[in-house]
Write a structure and sequence with these properties.
- With 248 residues, the chain is α+β, with helices and mostly antiparallel strands.
- 28% of the residues lie in helices and 28% in strands.
- It has 7 helices and 9 strands.
- Strands 1, 2, 3, 4, 5, 6, 7, 8 and 9 form a 9-stranded mixed sheet that branches.
Length: 248
Amino acid sequence: MDLEITTLAARPELADALDQMPDTWPEFVLEDLVGWANFPRIAVEFPEYVLAATDAEGAVVARGYSVPFTLHAPGRGKLPAGGWDQELLWAFSDLRHGRTPDTVGAVEITVASGHLGKGISGRMVEAMRANARALGHGELVAPVRPSAKHRQPTLPMEEYARLTRAEDGLPEDPWLRVHVRAGGVIDSVAPVSMTVSGTLEQWRAWTGLPFDTEGPVEVPGALVPVHCSAAHGYAVYAEPNVWVRHKL
């Protein structure tokens, strides 16, 4: 498939099309407050780190968001347990305080539903690597949300991330496999990469489930069970992701 992959900085007219692309996140994940407050700022503050893939007709078929941050700053130095949330907080804090970024963090790669299964996600990873390199960075890191983990919600992420295929030694998970094929190396698990909390009423609206019993609740699309406190009227989801490092 013929694709043109460019940055939003180079093609600002694509901003609306990128924003209107349907995402594939479960509804409750969109209630992560760090993401809710900061994701829309990426296209405005970091357009050179936003990628758009267009087909031969000029339609946007994929998007990729990333942010620059300073990993090797006092008090940092290693990939954070806070994963996706933390890289966003670091990126906008560094921007506000004028720190020079040394690392690019992948935030999202989304392929339009009609174009899945065409290898576009791998091309977007490669393009994000190339873009980070062109901007002068030596490393791209990604808090990967494994695409098949929701099928095994009770399996600890540490175990899941290390599952490999017998035939080639690559990760069993399709999205982790794309990153490894592109040159990424699995580093560690970010146990609280995203956090979503809400009242039982909110969780019922987000999931259609009763949320009326104390303890873990398996929710479609969730990578681990949601912790429900029926007695106190709330539930909390702490999503683990897998840090993958791409040396450039």
